[in-house]
Structure formats: structure tokens, C-alpha cells
Amino acid sequence: MMSATAFRQVTQDRSLFVPAGLFLVLLCAVAFRGQGLFTNNGLAGAILVATPLILTTLAITPIVMAGRGAVDLSVGPLMGFVNVTLITWLVGNGITHPVAVIAWAVGLGAAFQLVQALVIIYVRVAPIIVTLSGFLVLSGVNLMVMSRPGGVAPDWMLSWGAGTSVFSPVLLLLLGAFAIWGVLRGTMFYRNLRMTGADERMAYTSGVQVDVVRIIAHMVGGVFAGLAALSYTALISSGDPTQGSTYTLQAVTALVLGGASLSGGRGGALGSTLGAINMFLISYLLSTFNFGTVSGFVTQMAFGLILVGSLLVNVFVISRRTVA
Amino acid sequence: DGVDQLPASERTIYEVVDPQVPLGASAYKDFKPKKGPPWKIGYASSYAGNTWRAAALDAVMNDLLPRSKEAGLVSEVVVTQSDLKDAVQIQQMRQMVDDGVDAIIICCSNVTALNQTIEYAYKAGVPVFSFSGYVTSPYAINGAANHAQGGGEMATWLADKIGKKGNVLLVSGIPGFASSDSFDKAAKDALAKYPDITIVGEVAGKWTDQVAQVEVQKFLATNPTEVDGILTQGAQENGVLNAMLQSGRDMVPITLGGEASAACYWRQNPEWIDAGFHIWPPRREMQQMWEIMLRTLEGQGPKVQSFLRPVLPFTIDEVRAAIPEDCDVNSTDFVEPKADGWFPSAIADQYFERPADPWKPVAQ
Amino acid sequence: MGSEITVRMIDVAKAFGETKALKKCDFEARAGEVHAIVGENGSGKSTMAKIMSGVLHPDTGKVTILGEKVASPVDAKRVGLTTIFQEVLVADEASVFDNLYVGRDGVFRSQSTGDRRAEAAEILARLVGKSVDLDQLAGSLPLSIKQWIVIARAILRRPQVLILDESSAALDLDSTLRLHAEIDRLRAEGATILIVTHRIAELVRIADRATILRDGITVGTLGKDEITEENLLSMMTPADRRASDATEYASRKKALSAPLILTATGLAAHGSARLFDFDLPKGSIVGVAGLDGQGQDAFIRALAGIIQPFGGDVKVRSVDTDKMFALRSLDDAATLGVSYVSGDRKREGIFPQQSIFENLAIGVYRKTLGPLGVIRKPTLKPMFKREVDRLRIKIGSPSNRITSLSGGNQQKVLIGRAFVNDPQVILLNDPARGVDLGTKRDLYRELRLFAEKGGSVIYLSSEIEEFIGFADRVDVFFGGTLFRSLTGEEIAEAPILAAMFGKSRDASVDFDLERTA
Amino acid sequence: MISTVLNTEIGATRGASPLRKHKSISIGFCLLACLLILGALLVPGFVSPQNARSILLLAAFLGLASVGQTLCALVGALDLSIPYIIGGANILLPSLMVAGLPAPVAMIVVLLLGILVGASNGALSFRLQGQALIMSLGLGFAAVGAVQIYTSLGSQFGGTVFAPVPGWLRNLSAFNGKFFGLPFPPVIVIWAVIAAALGWIMHNTWFGRSLYAVGGSRTAAARLGISEFKIWTVIHSISGAMSALTGMLLLGFSGGGFVGVGDPYLFTTVAAVVIGGTSLLGGAGGYGATVLGVLVLTVLTSLLVGLGLSFPAQQAVVGLLIVPMVAIYARSPHIRNQI
Ligand SMILES: Nc1ncnc2c1ncn2[C@@H]1O[C@H](COP(=O)(O)OP(=O)(O)OP(=O)(O)O)[C@@H](O)[C@H]1O
Ligand SMILES: Nc1ncnc2c1ncn2[C@@H]1O[C@H](COP(=O)(O)OP(=O)(O)OP(=O)(O)O)[C@@H](O)[C@H]1O
Ligand SMILES: [Mg+2]
Ligand SMILES: [Mg+2]
């Protein structure tokens, strides 16, 4: 039930202005540079390639929203961890049943995030430190589980990575995540989460079970990380212990590009998704230019500049609101 | 399967081989390109940070492409670089396919991650050529030196050189990359045959001299153990050499892979060792891949999935011929086999169903 | 009046490390009564409220609310107890509606917004006196509306027990009356209302009973008829501290005719307020009073160079040249010798992770800088000692963290920070907030000494009593402008109060009168 | 790093006695001592001049790279541009020298560019507070991208630059470098000098004190006329300068320009700061603590290498160590005590 008020809230939410604006600009630019993206195959490929990033960004969204500066640095390696254990421990031991594989991915993600949440809540160490530690531990453990890329995804998953149809199972993963988020958004949990992130003391004294909210936020994030790992496994049809780490910075960047505040309270699935799609579009757009030898460097520079620019515009838009 | 169709002389090259390298018949035996020449080629490299990649790209842009243009075979080359991110490489390759390239050369990528994308390209009529490394997809054509055989040969050489006993440091490339892993595996197997040789350490040089130098330095500094020889992959031996020079230890034999810089040190210290190895000469390997690509596009029908070349030892005389006495120990170049010394057309012809000179295609 | 006991505390004690906030607290409140909790600053009132709300757990003793134990705010919600805490807790990034209903439901239950919106809109309109857009972000609203949101949040819960910890402190008269009406309504419905307040007039009007806390001990409970100022004061303050301070101040000769050291012309606290002028004679103590939100706070900040006043100029006489210079920024203030002390020490005063020494000395570093910004340390120790002695700051080791001090002593350190620069004007923005009487007296004495030596003081306070016998002049703000200047005989409770409510010279203010009017 | 959580830290160290104040330092020392003893017992040759020299050399690079991270952490920021500036400097210096600039001029140019990137970091991100780390990441990308484009003009590679490294630079930071004839590389001395100077500056200058003030309470600092903008800009500039310096010194160590040399410093600098005991939330800690953190981290790594642990295992162990370390001295107060 996306009521009129909810719609009003979305349109009122200035933090979406910049990502939405950037999205339109990028879309126009991509359309101008070549229509490859707007074909069935182009879109299918885009969904295939962008989904792991969208889902990792979604995975840190509830955690960041819960406040305390809880940027989850561990999310990339966590996705990698699910990926390599899936390939080595499950498929490697002949367990390929879809239910088992999906349950493993989702369960492992949620379990790891549960541990992190418990440490944050009961050991009371700042979340960024806990997740930095998670990042280092998992980055190491991933390479211990699987020393080099390899293995094969379960047979039923191989076709997922073909990316020849827009309506692929990967899209289903994405829609599944959106559905979970949509359901949560309709419950008090979502409001409690936002309020906890916006002012934890207020939420606590008003009778919000902030610890429960934080735990759930982490576990939902973990579930999304599991889904991200599935889509990533589908993308590369194998295991790779090294790539996960790079997703952390990308996801945090996408989150910020999506207008979320790393200090909590502000942000949401829509913004995060836009942010991640924008990241994909930037990279897509830059690939359409033939910069030859320096292509990687131009990409890197342009990407940095777009990041800086959109952050600055964001500040401008948001500070305008507080003045108004 | 594919290799059986090769003449016996070539089949020997495939005797020692990484078991993961696909040896079946090529999917492109009866391949006809979407259209005739000139073709548009995509080069999806995964990295651009080292001299070796630079030399390979240089071979494309400043040698192969101009020549192909002149012959009316290739109209342009689109280059992308993914900074070792598989997802990005996948997207770039798909983009190339969607934008209508006629063939894609990929470089030294993850052995499995790109398989779905390669299939996607195949279905769009775009063959994918994996240069200097293999991928396991049946729809790719791999072209490289036989890194397993090379690893074995270089390890055996080193073992002999240090008297079949002692401590060896293994300097690997990028763990997880096809050629790197093939090399390491075979090298370790070869060394395992010498009971008195121990591998005392394993570091990753990432095929980049600076990285190799730092890693070896760190190893030497924190491990007081004796090191009697260093087995390193190619394209990083100069870093290893410099690390040894800096450590203040006595120089030990190091395997050379063709970097002109390290070769220069050898030229100035001819007593040091007695052989180097062309293991992945960037320009020659690229030329090999390029010619395989042209032949495939010309419909010559490759017989095998993987075109492997034997690793070629070279002597100090070859080095003397290639670089001057006052050579540069910081050179970024490579000592490479002669133009037709790596994949001569007479041999190449044996790998194709309907061989012809790739540079002078019969009008279609 | 129902006699059912709803809140009961028996022999409760609570210590924070060394500090014994509550030593022996016995308390009972009944259904259908308004029960006041009074006591000096730091006597443990807020601690008591937090214990009842389940935020804090008592070290010893027993607390029952409506017959149940309350161990957390979630429990409190369940049994029907709601607390409005001293601090205004509002989430800026969330809508008004979300702020009103935060924590109302469990973690999951789905949201039902229909009825709630109507209910919220109605109550908020009744409290604020005009309708408020429920969908706008709370962050964009003024503080007074935020305070109402917090009150509305509590009232919407229809609590059986409602605790208000100094919630009326920030409300103007009109608003206070609306709040009282709301409290009356709840009382009539049989709820227990506990109010913590320092406003004696308010107490006298609304409370049915009052329990007095002194140093963490409940010293007694007064019935409606016994609640008088004398009774309250005599129970709140130990006899030895009760001696009038007025005698000490009486001797000071008035300094209002001295040359002006600071003038402000054409100021206004906000865009629409009437412009006013202000002047400060050398050696005088000028009090600044006003209900919350009347512009006195912005005024004193503008004098300190923290914010820009709407239009107008602030000029200060420079010691060296004896000319008037404009003061537009903090730097100007520093060079012209104008120091500012905030009462909000937690937010804009202390550096919590730093030592006591550092917290005091940082005020003077800039004056002692050698080349390259190097601090000349040797001069600092004597300076520190001088201030500590002068202000009688009770400290252990100077290298202890400032947070190891009691609130009053923290405040003294901040005042020391202002004094250490030898300023010619000191601006104090409600410095005695949360400061006990002994400390206050030390502070008054030092300020008087300072004034006698030719310094000038502007002293903003929310407690009228502070001005009496202390200030040479009291400037009262109302409606964003300087409403009246009181001197001499007029510096007394009734005239100041009248002026604060925007009344003419003689009208006395009485809550009951206002209500019937 | 995040301003809204600043207040959670306040209670953490309430009522601190001097002992408590130096808790993180004493724990750091204990840990270091334990590691050294363990190393001596378990790894032959661990306690040797060579090993000490190599630990100090590696620590010096990490220590120099962590200067900026420490200062940033003190105001609650994180600087993620450090690895990129290091990498950029590492390839820019040789390519400027190849282009004909005399070494000292080239070094100054690189240093100034590092400062420029840092200053823009600070100036642009000071309003962002919580988002500052992404701003620094973006600028880092932009800077290293630009440098790589510059270095690849006319050559084939941007990631690596080959040029003869001058002997004196090599001597500065190579294992076999000599400091006035003494058998250790001068970079260790450079680090020691910078550490001592920084420690002194932090305690004895207006800049140092205002830095702590801004980190402790932005508003209170503003009331004292301390410009938060200036502080952010200056510390980020210092961070840029130190990263550039580290990048240039690493050139002498690795023998050639390679843009990836900075990569390991992305999270290790943060880890060193955290292990040392500087709060990432601002206001408490200092470079002395970071020095300790750097030494603990380097000795630990060396010990783990000596024990034959692979790189991944080392990383996991370091990660596992962080939470207990921080839990000993920097737990946040329970929310009950924050109302
Ligand atoms: N969390 C805490 N930790 C340590 N001491 C505390 C804490 N909370 C309160 N105190 C101390 O307990 C005592 C009682 O404080 P409390 O806030 O209850 O006083 P109060 O009567 O509400 O004062 P005020 O009128 O200023 O609100 C004070 O000395 C205070 O310093
Ligand atoms: N967790 C804590 N540990 C130790 N001391 C504390 C703690 N919380 C508060 N205090 C001390 O208690 C005193 C006042 O605390 P409290 O939180 O009650 O103040 P407050 O009521 O909000 O402010 P005010 O000074 O206006 O009354 C201060 O001295 C403060 O340092
Ligand atoms: Mg109090
Ligand atoms: Mg109180």
C-alpha cells in the first residue's frame, strides 16, 4: 500500500534529488552514446552485472540506517565468504540442491551479521571498528577457504549468468530483496529503524527495543548480503576469494551516492538502489569511450570527480532544506 | 579430441600440461564471421599496471593493428581495462558484443568467471580469444605458452644449477590467474622430485617488478634462512634481482623470463647463470593470438581449443644480440624470440583445417 | 481524589561511581493527583524520574509502578508510564508524525496510520494552538514546537502515570496554561502526574502534594495547603546554607552612571521584532531575563559575536585606545576583551576528554602564544592555580578529566576559562543552570568583585531570584525585543515577572488570574 | 568519524584517573612486550639486529602513512585518500625526474600536490562530517587517475614508472641503507623525528590543542574562536603531505614507481590508529598511541610470518585482535547512562 502520504514523503525527501537527477543525466548520456543498453540483451546484462552491487548496497542500508555511524565495512568480504563457502563447502561436497544453496547463502549472511550485531550491542565497541575487524578477518578467511578463483557454480545456476533475458533468476533475487524490504517498510520495524538511527536515545526512552531493532537490521542486511553472494556467484559461475573486498568500498560509495547519511536516520532502499545503478551507469558510460591505454585511469578519475561533485551538490540541496 | 588431430611433433607440447587447460576440439572449426573484413576487434584487458601488459598492448597498437589495417583486415581495436574486477570485465565484454565487435581478445583473466560471458559472445557470433592464459569455457580459444611445461623446465634448470639441493624461494605471479597457477603447480611438482630441495617461502610478485622486489625484500629481511636459488615467474625477475642485490646477500641463481633489465644484469655478469627462458614474451604471444584470431575470422577453422607453445630457453649469446653492452638495467623492454621464432606459420598451418596466410586472405 | 497508590519507591539508593545521586528515597504517589518533586539542582530529581521510568536501575530498594516492576522503557510503556525527560528528544530527520508515535508499537506490527493521524493532528493543534503539518521533518521546526511534540507524544499514550521533568521550563505563559489544562484533564481521568519543576508559582497552583528531595534523601511530603515558598525552601536547603545572600550584595554601590563600555543599537532578535538599543555601563552588572524564546538568548549570543544580530551594531570600547569598535565576530570579541560563558556546558562548554587543566587553560593559550603558535607553558600553571583558588574549584589532580568533576565545578572551570583572559566584559548565558547554591554564591561574589574592579557583566538567567540584590539593572525581553529595563526597587520578583509576560508596570502575574481572564 | 555518536564516547572515559587515561598506552606496551617475548621464544632469529631493522623500516612506512590518519581520527574523520596519494606520489616522482626536473624540485612538486589534494579534501569535506570519508575516497580516485594519465602520456604504462632511482633516495629507505655509516636506513630516523615533533606539536602548540578541542566538542571549540574549517583543512593537508612523502620514500624501497604500493595502507593505517587507542570518534588519543599501534601491528605481522602463517591467516589474526583490544579501553557507555 503505497499511499499518497508515502508518495509525498518520497517526493519530499530531498536526499533523493541528487541520485535521481544523476540517474537521469547518466541515462541520457548513455542513450546518447549508444543504445546498446536499451536492448533486451543490454538490459539483461546490466541487471546481471549490477545486481551484486545493488544487493550489497542494500545490505548495508539497514545497518547504516540504524545509526551510530555503523558503516558496515565487512559486507564485501561477507559476500565473498558466502561465495567461496558455497562453492567449496557445498558444491565441493556435492550439495547442490537449490534450497540448500539458497538457505546456506541467506543463513550464513544473517548469522555473520547477527554475530556482529551482538558484539556491537553487548561488547559496546563502535560499529565501524567491529566491522573493520570483520573485514580483515573475512578477507583472510576467504583466501584460506579458497586459495584461488575456481570451482563451478551448481548446474542450475549456470544459466543464470547468461544474461540473455531481462526476466532472469537474478532479477528474481533483486525483486526478492525489494519484496523483503517492501514488507518491512510496511511494518513498524521500518519506522523503529529510522527513529533508532535518527536518535537512539529518543527511541530508547520512547520504548523502542533498540537492541532488537539493531539485531534485525543487521540480519536483514545479512540476508541481502547472502542474496548478493548468490547473484555474484551466478555472475562469475564460480568462486572468487579476492573480489569480495572491492565491493565494500563500492557499496559504501553507492550508498552515499544514493543520498544516505553515514550517521544514520537518512537513507533507504530506493536511494541505495539508485546509487548503485548510478555507479553501474558511470562505469558503463565510461566504457563507451575508447580511451585506449589510459581508459582505466580516465575511468578512475572521472568516477572520483563524479563522486565529489554529487556529494557537494547533495550538501547544497540538504543544507538548503534546513535553512528553508 | 582436438589435440589428437595435431601432428605428433606438436602433440609433445601438450604432454606436460595443467589439467584444467581445455584440450578439446575447437567450437570454431566451421566458424564463419558475421561479416567480412575489415573487422572490429575488442581487447578487454584486466589490468594495465605492468610493463608486460604495456608491451603486449604496444604490440597491438603499433605493430599488429597498422599491419592489419594495411591488409584491410581490421578497422579498429577497442581497448578496455577492468582493474582486476571481474564484474567490470564482464560488463565491458558484453558491451563490446552489443556494440558489434567481431572478435574479443581477453587477457589473463579469471579462468572461470568469464565463461558465461564468453558463451554470450559465442551466441552473438563473436569468438573470444584468451591471450597468455586459458579460460575453461569451450567457446574460447586459448593461446599461450605452456606455462606448466615452462614452470617444470625452469624449476628443473634451477634445481640443476644449485646442485640439486638447498633452499628455494618461489616468487609466484598473481595467485588465481591461470598462467600463474599453472606455472606454480608444475614448478612445485618438478622440485618435489629433488628430496634435498625445500621451498622455504612463497611470495606473490604480481608480475610487477616493484611488487616482487618489495615482497622478496620483506621475505629476505624477516627470514634469516639461507636461500640458494629463486624460482620466479616472468615479468618480475628484475624486482627479484634488485631485492637480492639490496639484501646484501650473495647473489644466487634466479630464473629469468625475458625482461631486458634483468637480462642486462646477466649480460654484465655472464658467469651468473647459463640460461634464460622465453616464457611469456608479450609481443610474440600477442602476435600469436592475433594471427590465430585472424585465421579464425578468415574461416580457417582452428582444430584445438588451446594453442600452446613450448617455453624456449635462450642463451647469453641471444641476449648479446638483442641488447647492447651498455644496456639499461632499468629497461622496461623484453628480450623476445625473433618474429617468426615463436609461432612460425609452417607450424601454425598445422593447427587449422583450411590453413592459409593470415595476412593475405583469399577473397571471400 | 482516589487513594490508590500508583507509584511507590521504598528506600531507593543509586550511586554513579563516587557520586551518590540518591541515598534514601521513599516516595508514594496516588492515582488522580499531581505530585511535585522538588529539590535543589543535583538533589536527585532526574535520577528519581529515570529510575521510575526504568531507564536506570536502583542499586538498592524497591520501585513499583502500578504494582509492577519496571526495568526498561519498554516495561514502562507496557504498564502505562510515560516520561518527558529534561532534554527535548526529537529526531530531526523524521516527520512530526513519526516523532509522535515512536515506540508506540512492537517491533513488527504493521502500521495503521488512519485514525492516528486524525488523533495526532487534533491533540497537537490543541497543545500548540494552531495546526501543525504532520508530514514535515521535525528538524525544520522551532524548539518550542519540538517541546510540544515531546509533550504530545506522551499525552497521546494516555498514560496512567506521567512524569514531566522540567517540561514547562521552556514554555511561555500561554503555553504553560495549555499544558496545565492538559494536566488537569489527565488528573480528572485518574492518572498520576509527577512534575519536576523549579517554578514555585507553578507548583503552588497545580500540585496536590509535593515531595522534597535534599541531597538524594526524600525529606518529606507536603499536602496542598502546606505548599508554600517558605516551607519548600526550608525543606530543600540545609539550614546553614539558607542565610540570605542579600546582605553580602547590599554594600555594592550602583554603577549605572559610569561611562558606557558596550553599546548595541538597532538590534532585533528576529526579522519581525521591534528594533531596540542596549547599553552597558562600565563596572555594572546587567541582568537579562525573559521567557524562553523571547530573544534574550539570541541577543546575548550576538553580543558575544557568535551569531549575527538582525541589523544593528554592537560596539565595545577598546581598553587601549578608548574608542568604540564594532564587534562582529568571535575574534572581535576576543580582541575587545569580551568573554562568553554558556550554561549549556555539555554542548558548548567542556571538552569532555580533556583534563581539568586543559579545559581551563585553553581559554588563555591564544594570549600566550610564542612564535609558530607555541604555547608558553610556564605562565599557565600560576594562572590555573589563581583561578582555582579564586573560584574555590574543588579538584583532585588538575590532570584528571573534567568529567570527573561535579556539574557545578565544571561550570566553575568554564567561568575560570572566561576570567583567565582578564576580560572587560563577561557575558554569562544562564551559567547557574544545574548549579547548586554554594557554587552560585561563589559565582556571585566573584562577579561582584570583578564589577567592583571595573569589569562589566551581562548575566542572563532563567531564575528571577538570581537578579535580586545582585543586578544593577534587569533588562527583560519579550517578543524578540528588549521590553523593559528595570532598576532599583523594580528589581523584584513581581515586576520582573510582569515584564516577562509582557505586562505593564504594575500588573501582578498570577496563574489563576490569568486563567480566568 | 560520525558526529552524532560523539556523545557516546563522552561517558566512556568518565571519571578517568591518570591510570585509566593511560590505559591504552600501558596495554599497548604490554602487548608489544608479549609479542616480542613470544617472537623470541618461537621464532629463531626473531631477536636479531636484522630483524629489528626490518621491522623498524616497515613500521616507519606505516607510521608515516598513519600520521594523517591519526590526525583525521582525532577530529572524527577518516582519510581514505592516503593509499591513492601514496601510489600517485610513487609514480609521479620518477616520471617528473624523467621529464628532467631535478630531484629536489620534483620532490617539492609532489609534496605540494599532495598538500593540494589533502587541502581540498579537508575544505570540501568539513561540512560533510560523516560523509567525509567518501569525499576523500573520491578525491583520491581523481588524483591518482590524473597522475596515471599524466604518467602514461608518452609512455605505455600508468601503473608503473621506470626510472633510475637516485642512490641517495635508495639509501634513505632501502634495507641496506646507511645512516651516517650506521647500519640502518635513514627513513627510520625520519620517522622518529617526525613522531617526536608531532608529539611535541600536539601538546605545545595552539594548533595541537585546537585540534583536540575540535575533536572533543565542535561547538565548544567554535565558541573559543577555533575555526573548524581551518583545522580540517590543515590536518588533511598534513595527511596529504605525509602520504606523498611516504609514497616518495617507498620509491627508494621498491626501486621503481608502482601505483599499487599504497594499497596496503588503506585499512592498515586505520587498524594502527585503532590498535594504538585513538578513538575514531575524535578528541582522544594521539600520535604516540599510533606509534605504538604501528609497532604492535608490524611486530605481530613479523611474528606471524615467522610462525609460517600465510598472508590471509595474518590478516585474519590481526582482524580478530582488534575488537578485544578496543574493548579493553574504549567501550561506549550503555545507552541507559546516556539519557
Ligand atoms: N549518569 C550519571 N553519572 C554520574 N552521576 C550522575 C549521573 N546522573 C546524575 N548524576 C549525579 O547525580 C546527582 C543527581 O542528579 P540529578 O540529575 O538527579 O539531579 P536533579 O535533581 O535532576 O538536578 P537538576 O535540577 O539540575 O535537574 C548529581 O550530583 C549528578 O551529578
Ligand atoms: N555516566 C556518567 N558517569 C559519570 N558522571 C556522569 C555521568 N553522567 C553524568 N555525570 C555527571 O553528572 C552530572 C550531571 O549529570 P546529568 O546528566 O544529570 O546532568 P543534567 O541534569 O543533564 O545537566 P544539568 O547540569 O543541567 O543538571 C555531571 O557532573 C556529569 O558529569
Ligand atoms: Mg541534573
Ligand atoms: Mg534534573
Can you walk me through this structure?
The complex is a heterotetramer of chains A (324), B (364), C (517) and D (339). With 324 residues, chain A is an all-alpha fold. Chain A is 74% helix and 0% strand. In chain C, 32% of the residues lie in helices and 23% in strands. Chain C contains 18 helices and 19 strands. In chain C, helix 4 (114-128) packs across helix 5 (143-155). Chain C is globular. Residues 242-247 and 508-517 of chain C have low confidence and may be disordered. Chain D has helices at residues 6-12, 18-21, 23-42, 49-74, 82-98, 103-125, 132-152, 167-173, 186-204, 206-216, 218-223, 228-254, 265-276, 287-306, 311-329; strands at residues 160-161, 257-258. Residues 1-19 of chain D have low confidence and may be disordered. Helices cover 71% and strands 1% of the residues of chain D. Chain D is built from 15 helices and 2 strands. In chain D, helix 4 runs antiparallel to helix 12 and helix 4 (49-74) packs across helix 14. At the A-D interface, helix 6, helix 10, helix 12 and helix 14 of A face helix 7, helix 13 and helix 15 of D. The site of one magnesium ion has 4 residues of chain C, from helix 1. Chain A: It is a multi-pass membrane protein. Chain A: The chain crosses the membrane at residues 43-66, 128-146, 166-184, 212-235, 247-265, 272-291, 297-318.
- Major sheet of chain C: 6 strands, mixed
CATH class division of the largest domain in chain C: Alpha Beta
Radius of gyration of chain C: 24 Å
Order of helices and strands of chain B: HEHEHEHEEHEHEHEHHEHEEHH
Summing up helix and strand content along with how strands pair, one would put the structural category of chain C as: alpha/beta
Beginning-to-end CA distance, first to last residue of chain B? 29 Å
Number of strands of chain C: 19
CATH architectural grouping of the largest domain in chain C: 3-Layer(aba) Sandwich
The proportion of residues in beta strands of chain B is 15-25%
Fold-level CATH name of the largest domain in chain C: Rossmann fold
Number of helices, counting only DSSP H or I runs of 4 residues or more of chain B: 12
Contiguous runs where pLDDT drops below 50 for at least 5 residues of chain C: 242-247, 508-517
Q: How far is it from the N-terminal to the C-terminal residue of chain C, by CA?
A: 27 Å
Percent helix among the residues of chain C?
25-40%
Approximate shape of chain B: globular
Query: Biggest sheet of chain C, strands in spatial order?
Result: 5-6-7-3-8-9
Strand-residue fraction of chain C?
A: 15-25%
Give the CATH H-level superfamily of the largest domain in chain C: P-loop containing nucleotide triphosphate hydrolases
